[in-house]
Amino acid sequence: MTGAGPIAILAGSGQLPIQLVEHLERTGQECRVLAFRGFAAPELRRRADATADLLDLKTIMATLEGWNPRAVALVGAVRRPGFSALLGAYSLLRNRQEVKEVIARGDDQVLRGAVMLLEERGYRVVGAHELAPGLVAPMSLRGKRAPDADDRQAVAFGLELLSSLSAFDIGQAAVVARRHVLAVEGPEGTDRMLRRVAGFRQSWLGLRRRREGGVLIKAAKRGQDLRVDMPAIGPRTVTEAARAGLSGIAVGAGSTLILEQEKTLRLADAHGLFLIAVDLPWMEPPRD
Amino acid sequence: MTGAGPIAILAGSGQLPIQLVEHLERTGQECRVLAFRGFAAPELRRRADATADLLDLKTIMATLEGWNPRAVALVGAVRRPGFSALLGAYSLLRNRQEVKEVIARGDDQVLRGAVMLLEERGYRVVGAHELAPGLVAPMSLRGKRAPDADDRQAVAFGLELLSSLSAFDIGQAAVVARRHVLAVEGPEGTDRMLRRVAGFRQSWLGLRRRREGGVLIKAAKRGQDLRVDMPAIGPRTVTEAARAGLSGIAVGAGSTLILEQEKTLRLADAHGLFLIAVDLPWMEPPRD
């Protein structure tokens, strides 16, 4: 039942839903926002057309039915809910054992499950990158600083690492200095991973933290459904990377969102960090 | 110049050097201890025959020459020194560029470099596991609790993950719940990784931490030189694993040290955690 109605935005936390809605409004595309209670930012909730609990699938589905949207986008972060809460909600609709098995396969699979649920009901699910390609990191992304030889080695090594890890439903990011892995992102997210690196760098030999180099590499996983879980960086990522003493950031071209792109680049320049986009050997090349 | 003298223990921090010395003394094997200043535990420093800075290779080499040891063991943790400190020290002895390249390849390579240095001078370098096989996790390791089906799945998945990671000079441990990776150990070490898991479990949905299952898997890497960097667990590991809500611990049989083995097992029983040793497909099978 792909409709003729507006684009429906199911909005979690962070800047992305706000920027996406702004983009749609600026370009004259009609949209409706369903804000997830406890996740969506206050300014978005004020603008929202509906509000629902993340796990209240009945309300979510009834709202969508009323809107008859021509496309649905799941946008913004929703922190991984507890197993039992998810179980309870999903089992309103599906076989308990089946749901349990989906959940056991990890985050990716849960999100894919949500997309399946929407698609089964005939909705067309799209990603923020399809609605607003301007938010995606282009191959040409570049600030004032360029990566040096050590940085380029770290980027290449980090990409190998993320490629190996992509079978395991774990983070989309790592910190690498030359060929030494300083951190792999888990469910804690990129910002906390960067704070961890800052923390143990500070404590080595009792020295104060200083610029020690190293690169944040962030990239989509092999086979990742970018419609529901697209890697993103923004100004906060740059600030945390600088605090961790890194020399720069490399993201997957065409498959990473840059929130507030201009501000992000300006901040990277101000901190003396490079910011580049690299081709991911395991992804389709970006179409632009 | 493998000598006829005592066994030389180059001692870093933690319980392992203490337990190794106790074992050697109990079994009538003569040994001499060189304690690293700022690393070795106070009770060991009192018993030590010599003390040196970690990077003071002149004193270390002169001391060993005087002892004429029949074997040298590097035992206990020495936190990763800063690049420049290492560089300075190594370059007393070797070509600066060569050393820089070794260091750039990561922790493993630095330790392998130290072993090479000793071996070039004719010393026989042995591991704690060769001097005291009783400290190593046997295949038969087992507490009161046994892993259930979810736990066994997590252990198998965790071993796959560690096997994939073993090419990358990163941690020897991960936390896995069923097929979901909760953390990969970086330079921060196992205890801090477990505290990280405890931390973000506590914050999901604002619920208090509770027993949520998951397994700590700790194992040597493919090709790891067990003489200088052998994975180890002990009572503190069990306590942190319990705090993180895990259901148990699996270690590589024959290639992991268990500090205070009886106390460690007793604690695991008290916390209701399983503690098992598993075969590592990528290691030589233990000889016992």
UniProtKB/TrEMBL annotation, chains A, B:
Residue intervals of the LpxI C-terminal domain: 143-276
Pfam families: LpxI_C (PF06230), LpxI_N (PF17930)
PANTHER family reported in the protein's UniProt record: BLL4848 PROTEIN, LPXI FAMILY PROTEIN
InterPro entries listed in its UniProt record: LpxI (IPR053174), LpxI_C (IPR010415), LpxI_C_sf (IPR043167), LpxI_N (IPR041255)
Lineage: Bacteria, Pseudomonadati, Pseudomonadota, Alphaproteobacteria, Hyphomicrobiales
Protein name, per record: DUF1009 domain-containing protein
Domain (LpxI N-terminal) ranges: 7-135
Originating organism: Microvirga thermotolerans
